[in-house]
Amino acid sequence: FEPGSYKLLVYSPNWDEADYDLIVDIADPECLDDNDCFGMEVCGLYECLMPPAPCQVTGEPVCSAFIAGDTTGKQTDFVDYTSCLDIPLEGPEDVYKMSFQEEVVVTVTLAGQAFTGAVAIMEKYCATEWACVTSSVGQQPGIGVVAQFKAKPGVLYYMVVEGVTANDYGTYSFDVSCCIPQCDGKECGADS
Q1: Which of 45, 55, 115, 148 has its CA 20 to 30 A from that of 123?
Q2: Which residues on neighbouring strands pair with residue 97, listed in sequence order?
Q3: Where does 14-131 show beta strands of DSSP type E?
Q4: pTM across the whole model
Q5: What are the two backbone dihedrals, phi and then psi, of residue 106, each rounded to the nearest 5 degrees?
């Protein structure tokens, strides 16, 4: 969390009244970036941790790219994205890496897949849940899955295309679109 004031919401799914205890533990972070760590360790979730092993990368898409791929026979479940998703992903996956020269809003749209698919975007490291920036899971085969994030210049990002279950694999396609915010207060494009 950044310094500031925060509000905590305690939620009951059916608006039932219930007794509860709320404990908030605030501690100084061990690190804020990789320079605060020693040796081979890197900063992840404000802790110094050993970096994960590198991933086998399928390709390096750029803005305005249309890519077709196939997860048949690929590695299955090299990482759980529990920091981004509420459900485990157990299917085969393909990993793509990308970086940008300026701050852009990136939209990845996975479509046409013959399986129930998911997309996860990782920052700097591909095989660790604490690097997850955003993700999206499809509800059924062929339905579009969209993940959007704001990319920082010079930072390496990994995009993981994965099946939800071990039986979710096959051909897929995705496109990458990028938009540069043209003025303050806009997420993308011109201020109209």
Answers
A1: 115
A2: 158
A3: 42-44, 47-49, 65-70, 93-98, 104-111, 117-123
A4: 0.75
A5: -110, 130
